[in-house]
Each structure stands twice: as structure tokens, then as C-alpha cells.
Amino acid sequence: MHPRTLGELRSSRFGEQAGRDRTVKDEMRENLLARLQAGDRLFSGVLGFDDTVVPHIVNAVLSRHNLILLGLRGQAKSRILRQLADFLDDEIAVVEGCEINDNPFAPICRRCRDLLAEHGDDIPVTFRSRDERYVEKLATPDVTIADMIGDIDPIKAAKSGHSLGSELTVHYGLLPRANRGIFAINELPDLAGKIQVGLFNILQEGDVQIKGYPLRLPLDVVLAFSANPEDYTARGKIVTPLKDRIGSEIQTHYPSDLDHGVEITRQEAWTDREGLQVPEYIREVVEGIAFKAREDQRVDKRSGVSQRLPISCLENVASNAERRRVMLGETEAVARVVDLYEALPAITGKLELEYEGELKGSNSVARDLIRQSVQMVFRKYIPQGEFKKVAEWFDAGGTLKLSDLEPVDTMLTYLEGIQGLMDLTVPFGIGKKSSPAEKVAAAEFVLEGLCALDKISRSEERGYGATERRANERESMEDLYRDYAMDPKRHRKKNLN
Fold this sequence. Notes:
Number of domains: 3
Distance between the termini: 108 Å
CATH class of the largest domain: Alpha Beta
Number of strands: 15
Strand content: 5-15%
Strand order of the largest sheet: 4-7-10-1-11
Structural class: alpha/beta
CATH topology of the largest domain: Rossmann fold
Radius of gyration: 32 Å
CATH superfamily of the largest domain: P-loop containing nucleotide triphosphate hydrolases
Number of helices: 25
Oligomer: single chain
Shape: elongated
Helix content: 40-55%
């Protein structure tokens, strides 16, 4: 049972901890060292940063630094900031009713000092969990200094009978309310310059001043920020003195390889639905769209391509497959290539395009990125040259148009009629025990891969067919045979000439 007064706190197992003269930064440092020694994972759900970002954060905490995470959108900055609270104690004792979480042994606000002087060990105490000690604010241009630091409340002064200069008339802002905890500011560059100046004292001297009144609060708080590098450097919205006072600047990044990206998206995207299966190669294509977009000259590099793009895209892919299953009355849905193109709304809204991309249009750019990603994944599974039989079938005049809402069994019959096609589905895990839906999904992906490699073509009108060049060659040969059949002598003479 928790102590309820300062006297009970002194004699309890919490008393030694509460009475220690250590700062929040010391507390985080001690707890982090204990977790490192135990071999615990430091940031859950954050993948791909173990050898890059995490060591820098560890060094910043061990150095007792305030820190800033610098990275493009969708790089898990906010998630990391929120998990910094895991380095705090499970709970701490505070003076009950105190707005700034005063330590019962050494209060700093006027109200709690008066209570201690009047009641001594009888002042009531309560406990704050680590989650309650984390305060986060999204920086916006309309944030005022009163929101962040505080202000004198004339109404409180009038009701209490205190003068405006009294500390008892202060309405505390977010920063003092984060006392003995962590105060995180997301998108710091969006904070007005004069508000950033208001953070100087807490970073340099460890206290804040309320307006022009002679009231100073020696706060104990860890400051953590996040920012986009474009805002931070190019537009220069973080004032230089504030930048200089931030101990560690830690740069985040997008997944370094496709496998890391796939795992992040698998963790975040909602695809665990009844009767739904998303093949691994479809997941890789979805992730590849983001990778290709980050390299594409038509996409604004300064804005970045958020990791939310593949997450939203994969959810839309899953939803389209689910919609198809319900409409056809089938028991199983397997995500297919056609679902990728139905997920365009989840892609176009997350691409900031350069002038060239704007001219072409977001839909066109997104379709091209899907095609590039399909080609990349297709080459991973099927080496060059193993698809000659399939290409020859289309070169000979074969065509196939697949419908999004056609029964799986009917589509499988069409696909099995293409020479050599089903043999190419083996690298995608297709075997005798695979369901018709799995076979159709893999076969369609093979056709889309061949289309991405320009071995066959695809159009909205006639579906998959020979490339335009091969179709023209075939038509020319057909014309030649027709001429020969009608007049062999003239045809032979024309060739001799």
C-alpha cells in the first residue's frame, strides 16, 4: 500500500528513493544502464535502428543531454520520443494536488512550500506513473508563451486576494507541468521564434521565468524534440541559440533494405482479417513502391516518402481482396496484382511531386512506381530467360484479360491454358497443395512481371498480349503469307527484285 503522507513516505520503502537528490536525467541514466546490463530491448516496435539511431540515443541519455530527433516524415520519431518514458522510474511520490509534481521532500512551488511549513510530515502525497510524467506537445504557429511556460491569472488573483506578483496567481503552462518528467515537442521548427526563445533558460539554467514577474521555477525536466531536416536547415526555423543548447542531434532514416521495410509494414499494417492471405511477394512489391519513390526524380526528396505509404497501401490491398471475396461469396481471398492498382489512393496522397511529376500526374507516377517495384521483385524470384515459353505464347497471338470480379476457378482455367505459366509460379511457393486463389495470384504476378520487363504488354481493353513490336511483326508476317497464298509467282518475283 502506498504512503499517504510525507511522514509515512519517510518510513516506507519509497522514502529512500524520494529523498535522493537526483535529477530526472540521473534517473533515466541509472535505469538505462540497468536495462543495458540486463540485455533488454530498449525500443519496442522500432526496427532497423539498432546499429544506427539507438546507440546515439543511448549515448545522449547517458550523457544527460536534451536531444532532438532529426528526420523526414514517417521515421518513427514520435514513437521513439514516447518510449523515452520507459527509462523513468515506475512511479514517484509527489505532493497531492500540486500542478507541477513537486517532490514532497523539496518542493519548489509556493503552495507546496507553504503546506510543508504549516503541516510538516502531515502533508498529503500521491504517486505519478512514468506515463503521467511524459508530456508531449505538437508545435504549431498558434502556440503562445503562456501555453508553454505559463502566465499570471488575474481571475485567480482576484478570487484569492493575492497580488498579481504573487506566485500563487500563476497559471502554469505545459513545461512546468512536466516538472520531474520528460517534455517532448514534435515538429520544433513550427514553433514561433519568440516561443523558442522562451525555452532558453530551461535548457541553459534549468529554470523558467513567468512573464516579467520576479518568479523563477528551478524545474527538473528532460527536453526532447523532433524536427524535419528541411525545416531545420533549409528554412532555418530553429533559432541558433536554441539549437546550440540542445545536447545531441540524432538523425533518423528510412529502412535501409527491403526486408526491414517489409517487417515494419507487417508490424504496423492491419491485414489480419478473416479469410485473407497476403503473399510475401505482394508485401515486397508494396514496400518496393516506397523504395522506388524515394529514388525517383519526379518525387520531392526534401519532403521524403513516409513509411505510412506502404502501410496504408498494404491495408488498401488487403481491403480490395476482402471486398472481392465477399462479393464473389468465396471463403478465401489472396491479395493479387490487381489489388495493387486499386490501392492507388493510398499512394498518390503521400507523394510530393517535383515539376516533372506534376506534369505527368500523381496517378501516372504511382502506376509507374508499381510497375518498377513489380519488376524488381519479379527479378528476385525468376532469373532472366526462364519465361521464354510464356512470351512465345503471347507472341503467337494469345491474349488474356483478367477481371477483378471473376471467380477464381474460371480464372485458373484460363491461366493454366498458357504454356509454361504455372511452372513459373513454383518460386512463389506454389505447389500441388496450393489453393486455386494462391495459384491465380502467383500466375497473375508472373504476367505482370513479364509486362514490367516488356516481354508482354497489357492494356485496359484487351488485357495481356504481345508487345506492340512483336504484334506488328506478326501482322507483317501474316500479311506476307496472305499475299503469297493469293499470288505465289508475283510474291516470289517481288522478293527477287
